[in-house]
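Hello again,

I reread your note about wanting to compare the complex against the isolated chains. To keep things tidy I'm splitting this into two emails, and this first one only covers the full assembly. Below are the input lines as submitted, including protein chains and any nucleic acid or small-molecule components. They are followed by the predicted structure of everything together. The single-chain runs will come separately.
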Amino acid sequence: MGGKGASAEPAEGGASLSLLQLDQATIRFGGLVAVNSVSFQLDKGALFGLIGPNGAGKTTCFNLITGVYKPTSGVIRFQDRSIGGTPSNKIASLGIARTFQNIRLFRALSVLENVVVAGHLRHHTGLFSALAYLPPSIKETDRLKGEAMDLLRILNLEHVANVRSQDLSYGMQRRLEIARAMATRPELLLLDEPAAGMNPQEKEELLKMVKKIRDEHGMTVLLIEHDMRFVMNLCEHIVVLDHGEEIAAGPPSAIRSDPKVIAAYLGEAV
Amino acid sequence: MKFWGIRLLSIAGAILGCMALQGFGLHQNDYIQRLLILSGLYVTLSVSLNLINGITGQFSIGHAAFYQVGAYSAGYASIHYYKAAHLPPLIWLICTMILAAFAAAIAGFIVGLPSLRLRGDYLAIVTLGFGEIIRILVQASNPLGGSYGLNVEPKIVSIAMVWLLAILCIAVCRNLLKTATGLPFLAVREDEVASSAMGVNVTQTKVWAFLIGSAFAGAAGALLASFEGFITPLSFSMNVSFIILTMVVLGGTGSITGSIFSAIFLTLLPEYLRSLKGPDGGPLTLTGGAVMGWLVAVIVTVGVVRWAFGEGERAMRNQTLSAVARALSTLAVLAFGFYVFLAAKGSGSILSWLFAFAIAAGIVWLVLANGDQPIAKKVRFSVVALAVGFLAHMIAGYLFNKVPVMHNKELKIDQLRMVIFAVTLIVLMLLRPQGVFAQHEFSWAWVAKVLRLNRQKAVQA
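Full-complex prediction:
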């Protein structure tokens, strides 16, 4: 791995461009090695793609990064801080937010409430102020609702703000997951198959939206996607996993012509 | 400051309201006082369990344990320190409530810990076990009176305190849900993995829910101890836990409004059934045939209502059928009216019957509350369905009474009341599995919306 050395002190003020770094990250479930010494690093502001056939370990990688699983060995660094095995909610507060492959919205809550829950991470009034419904708490709630509405506007969901999230269409639910993840104000946004189940037009809109999120909101994006056209058009850098191992990495043009990738993943179809 | 003005006014209003209730209650007999106090305590218990079960989604069925911890810690403190403290009884009561709340919160914390690892049924078993452990430990403990129980003094009947606690509990839960701080509680119920990924501290949220919920149950326990003046482990058996759970589920898991109404309803219903009078003015006595008749009536009522809103809608477009149905239902209503009239003439218990009828109509209406039909139509259908059901009851009862076994079996209402209670629960749950209020809350905006919808429908029709 190039880039950063093994510096111990946190790099404040952007001394390094590397935001996330996986170093020989490995996880075993019993005899199965789901992710086998995968190493890559993400620069700040990158649009980064993680692809591979089914069962390649992409979502497991996400779960390692977001603290759902603890790596069996290897190091995961976020802003030069080792985060392997840190609880999910701590990792979220450090600045990593994600969406889920199988949509996991708070189904009975409204669209707005879904986003406010995530915004709550930046919430500073205490529980007792809320129990007594004191002005600081009310003000804070109004502020969070306002911010949530802004996010909904960005993702074109403001007209359904008060609809229960389970009543939304599939594409809208996917967008709401992105809005909810953005509400934690992350540095790094992990999108797990954001375009799955969308029609071509929705995919096109999503592509623009993700670009906008990176360009206007300065978030670094790491995404898993099966739609090759989508990934090739969007990502600037791609890592390919197969059977838990990294088989290729590089810009889309290189990946497209990599014989190993074609053999493992794209096959004869493309 | 407008905010503080409104806040002070509402607090003053709550206190005055409770004092007024107390003033009213103290002029009533012991029985009424008891009902007023018990329904207040059960409101507190079910709303606080709703915070754990409904809002945070941690399936706890040992709520009586917290109630018991509260009652015994308050009782124990009263026996040993009340005389030494030289405090006025009411102040002492408040002190014991705070103490009981703390003691129960500690118990809640201990039970909350397994909830970090367990979900659903597994947690239910742990909380159930915990409840039994507490009860049996108390039963085996001599300083706490063992199975004989404790004589608690001072004995204070304070309806105002009971209802103030209930209002405080409702306000706390409502406030929580109104602010952004409360949303993570709901999020934990919906999806723990997703909440965690959004930065919600799932552990802390669950423990807080248990702490707050059990503290209120504990304070309610202190009030029970001072009201009864005597507590035994029997007052906190598994039955109590299940009744509280039933209140939460019946009202609609997660709905504070539902918990309040079903707590009052389920506290008063068995008592009301006890006093139900027959058409001859004596205690209501039913033959086996009449009981079967009532079952038939329930089925017919529900069937008619369902049919009227479903298939019936289409059938009623046929002129002849519609006319026949109208005639039949008018006849049914008249027959019912005539029966009530006879009953009233015989005994003067018309109020009792009308009340029963109103309750039944209310239930039917609630059943239909989720359909998008005008309310006037719902009420009309409900009344007709009940009248038809009643006729069915008369006819079925008559036929069943021809069967000798059924005719000979005479049952008094107080033997039957728990059966009726159970049947009511079954019917309600069958018709609205998500609870009477589902996850809705009462709000003036909601009332306005319903009224507006009805007006719009009336205009369209």
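For quick reference: Chain B has two domains: 13-274, 278-408.

B.
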